[in-house]
Amino acid sequence: MPQADDISVPQNMQAVYDEVTRVTDDFCKTLLDEEYALVCRKIAAALCRKRPSPLAQGNLTHWVAGIIHAAGFVNFLWDKSQKPYMRAAEISERFGISNNTVSLKSKDIQRALRLGPLDPRYCLPSRLADNPLAWMVQVNGCIVDVRHMHKAIQEEALRKGLIPCLPEDLPKLKPEALKEAQPEKESPVAELGQTPNLMPKEEGPTLFSGGNG
After folding, report:
1. Contact, 123 vs 182, CB < 8 A?
2. 112: closest CA among 22, 49, 188, 185?
C-alpha cells in the first residue's frame, strides 16, 4: 500500500506545493473531478521531492498547467469516450498560455517522473480495477497478471506495494476507497523477487518450478 509520504513534501517546498495545489484543486474540482485533483496533488508532491525540484525554477503557472496536462496524459483525458473529457488545448486556453508551452512542461514532468499512459501510481482511483498495468508484476523473470496467481504471491505483491489491493477485495471496495490504494511501483512492471516456495509441489509444473516437476 502507498506510504503516507505520497503527498508529503520537503519543508522548503511546502509553500510552492500549497500554491500549486490550490490552483490544481480549483481547476479539477470545477472542470474535472476530485479524482483528478488527487492525481495532480500526487504529481505536485513527487516533483517537490525531486532534488532539485523543477518547481523551484521557471513560471509556476506553466508548471501548474503542465501538471494538469500530465495527469490528463496518464488518464486519457482527451479521449471523448472517457468521463470526464477535456481537450488538451483547453488547459492552455484556461490559463492563457500557449499549448506548446503546456505540452513542453508536461513532457518535462513525464520524463522527471517516468510517466506513461495508465501509470498505476497516477491512475484515477476508480479506474485502477480495470487498469491491467496495476496488476502486472515480474516473478522469477516472467511477467504475470497477479490477479491470476496463487494468493501467497498476491499477498507478497501487496506487502511490497506493487498492487493496490488483493484482487479478492476489489468487489468490496468503492472507488473512493481506492484513493489511497495506488501501487508504489515506478514502472508498469515491477520485480516481485524470487518465489520458489510459494506454489505447492502437488499442483504440478509452474512458472516457479522450472517446468520439469
Report:
1. yes
2. 49
pLDDT tens per residue, range 21-76: 999 999 999 999 999 999 999 999 999 999 999 999 999 999 999 999 999 999 99
pLDDT tens readout for residues 157-202:
888 878 777 777 766 554 444 444 454 555 445 555 544 333 333 3
Please tell me the CATH code under which domain 4-116 is placed: 1.10.472
Prior bond of 54 cis (ω within 30°): no
**96: alpha, beta or left, given left = phi > 0 and alpha = psi -120 to 50?**
left
Instruction: With CA atoms as reference, report the closest residue to 54 among 98, 80, 16.
Output: 16
For the full predicted model, state whether its pTM sits above 0.85. Answer: no
Angle between helices 34-49 and 60-75 (to 10 degrees): 120
Buried/exposed 137-158: b ≥16 CB within 10 Å, e otherwise? bebbeeebebbebbeebbebbb
Domain boundaries, the chain: 4-116, 125-203
SS3 label, residue 182: coil
Give the separation between CA 42 and CA 141, rounded to whole angstroms: 30
Q: Which residues pair with 139 in a beta bridge?
A: 142, 193
Strands (E), 33-130: none
Question: Cα–Cα distance between 95 and 39 in angstroms, integer?
Answer: 19
Is the Cβ–Cβ distance between 115 and 76 less than 8 Å? no
